Here is the input.
Amino acid sequence: MAISVSSEPSLAAFGSSLTAITLAELGDKTFFMALILAARHRPRYVFLGAFWALAAVTVLSLGLGYGLRELLPTTVVPWLAAVLFLSFGVKLLLDAQGMAADGADEEEKEAQEAVNEAESGRRFNSAWAVIWEAFTLVFIAELGDRTQFTTIFLATAPAFTFAGLLAGTLAGHALVTGLAVGAGKWIGTRISEKLLYRLSGGLFIAFGLFALGQALVPVS
Here is the structure.
């Protein structure tokens, strides 16, 4: 698999993925899972488990996106990226339009229920037990989540390098997970899920228009 490492595409990939992942993760179910777990256990253990779960899903998602890029003809890939970005952006904007004002509360409620179910009747006597719980809960919740689709779609864009996407995505996950375990209570009460969806939708439409431009005027 050919992976570009030139500085300009890597920087663009880093900035784009950092922004997209940060917007997607804030107020997400996994954000609230880390917040809730950090209130019950040592925050550093929760951070380690949650971050490594997100890193594992990131590698899997980038592999899927790059797999699509490698399997399809070079001329088709920009069109695919444009369609995916634009479709996802429109979906996010439509979801935001029909979202209730307490959208973040729903995510927190689902996270609370998942954590309560996982900890029912259990005692955590070691750091490893906390790390493993955070890892499994976040890994399962992240599969099929909008953050995973965000990562897959970013990886289909020919303009973005693997190294830049990996670094930006992991930085975004580290930032949001750190906020969740460190200042989650304060941030959680100030999150507007509708605004985050709108910002994410607008960002993906911008990505889609850029990819469309590449498809219409391919770089020689």
In short: The chain has one domain: 9-215. The two ends are 20 Å apart (CA to CA). Residues 9-215 form one domain.
